[in-house]
Amino acid sequence: MMILQLLFFPLLAALVVFAAGNKYASKLALLLSVVQMILTVSAYIALQNSPEKTLYFFTEWIQQPKISFHLALDGLSLVMVGLTNFLLPLIILSSFNRNHENPRGYYALMLLMQFALVGVFTAMDGMLYYIFWELALIPIYFIALRWGGANRVPVTIKFFIYTLAGSLLMLFGFIALYWYNPNHSFDIRDFYANTVCSCNQGWLFWLFFLAFAIKIPIVPFHTWQAETYKEAPTQGTMLLSGIMLKMGTYSLIRWLLPILPSGVAEWGPLAITLCVIGIVYASIIAIMQRDLKKLFAYSSVAHVGLIAAGIFALNMEGLQGSVIQMLSHGINVIGLFFCADIILHRTKTNNIDELGGIRQTAPLFNTLFMIIVLGSVALPLTNGFIGEFLLLYSVYSYNTWLAVFAGLTIILGAVYMLRMFQKTMLGETSAATVSFEQLHWNEWLVLSIIGITIIVMGIYPKPVFDVAQPVLESILNKSLIK
Amino acid sequence: MNTLIYTTALGLLCMVGEILNLRKWLIPIVLIGLSVIFYVNFSGWGVEIPATISGLNMSHMVHIDNFSIAFSGLAIFIAALIFMLAHDYYKNEAHHLSDYVAIIVFTLVGALVMFSYWNMAMLFLGIEILSISLYIMAGSRKYDTRSNEAGFKYFLMGAFASGFLLFGIALIYGTSGSFELTKIAAYFQSGQAGALFYTGMLLMLIAFFFKVAAVPFHFWSPDVYEGSPALITALMSTLVKIAVFAAFYRLMSQCFFYSYNDSHIIISIVAAATMFMGNLVALSQDNFKRILAYSGISHAGYMLLTILSVQVNSEGALLFYSLAYAVASIGAFAIAIPVFFFTRSENVTAFNGLAKKNPWLAGILTVFMLSLAGIPPMAGFLGKYYIFSKAFESGLFVLTFIAVINSIIGVNYYFKVILAMYSKPADETAIEPTPLYWAVIVTCLILSVVLGIFPNVLMGLL
């Protein structure tokens, strides 16, 4: 029952916010998302006390063809749901003092998105999962379309069609899995029984991999991403980069590795190579960027490329590293985009060359931004370090040469992040930054929470490892061909 | 059988309505009549009694089985929605109202015959009753040249198709010696079928391709859809299309079942071409009715997949898809007709800025467009999913994949409408549908969403 509360509360919240009207939309949305956060914590406690460390809900939904309403919250799901529900209040809080037209629609769509995301992370029936996966696309599309930047129309339609194309291929894959398993069902337990002939796993791998690779995005399927991040409103970008792309990496672990082990064995090496190429490629492009949001977008491609590489390395370090790094990246990247938004809001520009010297006028902002940047370049004792270390180690034990190239991410990452920081925050003030306004209460609150989390997670990441460990072990067992 | 008789009686009553001066009460009477017929129709559910007229056994002519009852129910429901729209649509043409209503009821009669025929002669009668009614309705705006063109073009093309059908039936009768579906099937199974039989079958297939507007026999459809009055376009793209498909399915499942191996290549090629053609051409259209016409062509392509997967009992998929497609289309028309009326334009630009002018209407039309595009959790998604799944089960891997690719293309033009509503500036014209329109819109909305989440009710039927 707890898991149903966790799933349907955001949907209810979205309806309440929409019905309550424009005046209280933002405050009500914040309040309800905090309640959802509390529900998540109580679910965590319930999970720890349950004998199997999993919360279930199962009921028949559609008899013919057999689709069940099967939800489960295990350690892996909990980490993802926790990330979603932790970030959402921050994202909502970050939008205070920004006057959006028709706020009730804006916040209701965000909460609807949260509903779909929690659904994706807890669904254990293929078709249910697919429906949530698609459902997540609709609110973010409308957020970007209605509240986005000047060039939003062609960019958002490209984003929508691109990701939908991937999803439909996945639908075809699910239909194939349905008929290939002898029970003819979409239940993940039937998929995990691994009844698909290895002769069919190769092409099935590509159907699923394409859907996830577009969402993550893995180079060369990333072309929708930078423009969309730039054109979407900041909260939309945060949702996309902080949570939505984790749908892809999570799905690799849950819905690809254990279901198609032979397919992964056959094509995994190519996939991991693509990931590593993507890391280097995106880092180099990030160095060239002059626009803050685009720079963060490409740095994000590099980071998630490493996460995906760690997953395809098929070892325990890689899976653990990817889980912790999904969390850290989600937290860091929304911090980065929020900083870019704060700068844009005050100086009307996101061009690095026109900025500089913000430290002198806004020292508190400088400190908080610094912490987030350090987390993002994976300095020891920040949350980025432990994940990136584990991921690189896993790629290293997979293949030394790949690890050498993947390791460039740390060096190149430091290059573009620190240079960006230097050019925007340090040095002499420019015309744009000379009257830089101090942080509002909501801004420093969001950035402080992010900053504290970065440090706490960097020092003590153990709870995350503990909670995800058993699930990851069983998934890894199924993913390796004996 | 009663369904058919009562509906015919209702049609006659409407014609007499003019004399009895019932004009004002005509549509309420028809709606009440249809609900009674709907009830009568389903009272025969599950009981397979042979069709009789005053004791005379008609079971070699029509068979009332669950298939025909389910589709009849669907057709009556669609007709009722159309009549609800007709009340306000024909407000300014009240002097013709009883003619129009009677003719639309006769369209329904034709459809009902096509759901339950057991005999080639009945099939032909059904198709002709349906088509002749439509020729008149397509040209019913007699001072509008486009409507004239639509009526005339539809008549010529339709007559051609009927000729093909008749010729095909004649050849099949000539070789097999029977009009009855099962006897023809038995004749084919006995292995005596020769070239003339195959020619007859091919001619019948061509006639059906004509009627469902499958490529390369689709050229009439966009012009006719565009020229006809919008309400009649709604009727053609839902009720008529579903009727022809159900008849086609019945023909393939009851009569040509054993010749599947010979016919499936032709149908497969036509299906693939129809999907690609409909979707790709729809991309470059600006007129809303033409977009729906081409999208209708592509939907015909998807529905042909159910005809190809006839061995795995895909009639449930066809029924679900038909309903999902029909409610989304009629809902879209119920919004489009007032929009056309107030903006005096039938282009996609007529929808510009609807989200600002009337956010509820824009939101609901978005749901219909998403449903037509097949995006969860709307009913259109499950409909598409059922068709794909059945096609995959019957081994049509490549065609299913082509259908998936086409779904991706299809999203583009449905989003044209959504983009117009949400990202284009609004003009001054306010758009306010009348309460009856709202009733239809809300009914379609509820069905589009609820069927997407609880499809069990319908999927349990067949």
Q: What can you see in these coordinates?
A:
The complex is a heterodimer of chains A (482) and B (462). With 482 residues, chain A is mostly helical. In chain A, 76% of the residues lie in helices and 3% in strands. Chain A contains 20 helices and two strands. Chain A has helices at residues 2-20, 25-49, 75-94, 103-122, 126-135, 137-147, 152-180, 188-192, 198-215, 225-231, 234-256, 261-288, 292-312, 316-347, 358-361, 363-376, 383-398, 400-425, 441-459, 462-479, and strands at 55-62, 67-73. In chain A, strands 1-2 form a two-stranded antiparallel sheet. The longest helix of chain A has 32 residues, at 316-347. The radius of gyration of chain A is 21 Å and the shape is globular. The two termini of chain A are 38 Å apart. Chain B is globular, with a radius of gyration of 21 Å. Helices cover 75% and strands 1% of the residues of chain B. Chain B has helices at 2-17, 26-43, 66-89, 97-116, 120-138, 145-176, 181-189, 195-212, 220-227, 230-255, 260-283, 288-308, 315-343, 354-357, 359-373, 379-393, 397-423, 435-453, 456-459, and strands at 52-53, 56-57. Chain B is an all-alpha fold and 462 residues long. Chain B has 19 helices and two strands. The model of chain B has no long low-confidence stretch (mean pLDDT 90). The interface between A and B is medium-sized, with 29 and 29 residues.
Describe, in short, the structure shown.
The complex is a heterodimer of chains A (482) and B (462). Chain A is mainly α. Helix content of chain A is 76%, strand content 3%.
Output the keywords.
heterodimer, A: 482 residues, mainly alpha, two-stranded antiparallel sheet, 20 helices, globular, B: 462 residues, two-stranded antiparallel ribbon, 75% helix, 1% strand
Radius of gyration of chain A equals 21 Å
Amount of helix of chain A: over 70%
Q: List low-pLDDT spans of chain A.
A: none
Query: What's the rounded overall pLDDT mean of chain B?
Result: 90
Tell me the β content of chain B: under 5%
Structural class of chain B: mainly alpha
Shape of chain B: globular
Number of helices of chain B: 19
Which structural class do the helices and strands of chain A define? mainly alpha
Tell me the distance between the termini of chain A: 38 Å
